[in-house]
Amino acid sequence: MLTPIDEIISKAIDAASDDLRKLSLLIHGHPELALKEEKACAALTKYLKESGYAVEHGAGGLDTAFVATHGEGGLTIGFCSEYDALPGIGHACGHNLIAIAGVAMFLATVEVAKQCRLPAVVKLFGTPAEESVGGKVAMLKEGVFDGCDLLMMLHPTAGYSGMWHSQCSLSMQIEYFGKAAHAALDPWDGVNAGSAATIALNTLGVLREQLKPSWRMHGIITSGGQAANIIPDYSCIEYTIRTQWERELEVLRARVLNAFESAALATGCTHNVTEELAYLDNQDNSVLGKMYEEIMQKEYGGEPVRGVGASSDFGNLSHRFISLHGMYELAGNHVPNHTKEFTRDAATVKAHERTLFAAKAMACIAARCMVDKDFWERVRKDFDQRKAV
């Protein structure tokens, strides 16, 4: 008697649940920032190797990135795990859960390929530094994802969605260099780098009146001086801009850079801008997204989340590969991401259970792509049509 595919998936993930819970709590209890996820990376790769999978370390030149691989022939399906934390509030975006969701989807899809004797290459990509730097973008540039037919990942949030459009995002660091002087005895001999930072942010505040409603700008002064009686010779701003579409990002970028330059000119400072890798908007696949939402709606009811969300480096992958970025409700109480309450809930049993259910849904979709040629053709057609727009 043949075993139904969804039963294979459910059993594979349930069998790993206790181990995945331990991994999740370990990562949650030791939050690590971008490119410093040594404990998380070590724990995940140790588990994968002990489970019998080949693991490549340092993927794309990033010390805390990895790729686990199984199988050959057929479609190449990849899943992404994230595991970096946020400064000060730890795993307030649930990356401890995203880490184990990737592992769960990988294990289940491998098991389907084994038991159904399907030709397929299944990969798990350990992708660091999503909250800053853009690990996936760096890995993409180095060809780590080349050859994949389908890329998938899960993300906890305050609702569920299979067609979630993220914003493009570009983060930058702006440094102003002036000249120190005594603020009381001879301030006229100084060049105030702190004033340059203030003028820059005030200029950007005025600029907001001319921005599209969907555009976002936000930042902080991370260094503005050392003492009130010293004209500061150095200041630094961390700033991020976001737009709904890729074509708009360069327009906003040019206007923002003009504001930073004008502040340097007004104060007599010099300045330097260091830009991180840009995050592109997520390109939805309506065929994959519809199937995911139907599964989630049947389980939880309600309506899927729509509209524009935050930003993710997974968006860059969606421009190159057929993909699905599934969102699911963290713990049933609609707590927003990047809050202390989200950090708390990301360690709960309910969040763990919801993560594994969503992983089962995603693995079922991956399996259908492997076995249903007509479905896969519809997925490919949707992707091609979106690229042509």
TrEMBL record:
CDD domains: M20_ACY1L2-like
GO molecular function: dipeptidase activity
Peptidase M20 dimerisation domain mapped to chain residues: 169-264
Pfam families linked: M20_dimer, Peptidase_M20
Classification via SUPFAM superfamilies: Bacterial exopeptidase dimerisation domain, Zn-dependent exopeptidases
Ranges annotated as spanning the membrane: none
Family statement drawn from the similarity comment of this UniProt entry: Belongs to the peptidase M20A family.
Protein name: Peptidase M20 domain-containing protein 2
Species of origin: Coemansia spiralis
Taxonomic lineage of the native organism: Eukaryota, Fungi, Fungi incertae sedis, Zoopagomycota, Kickxellomycotina
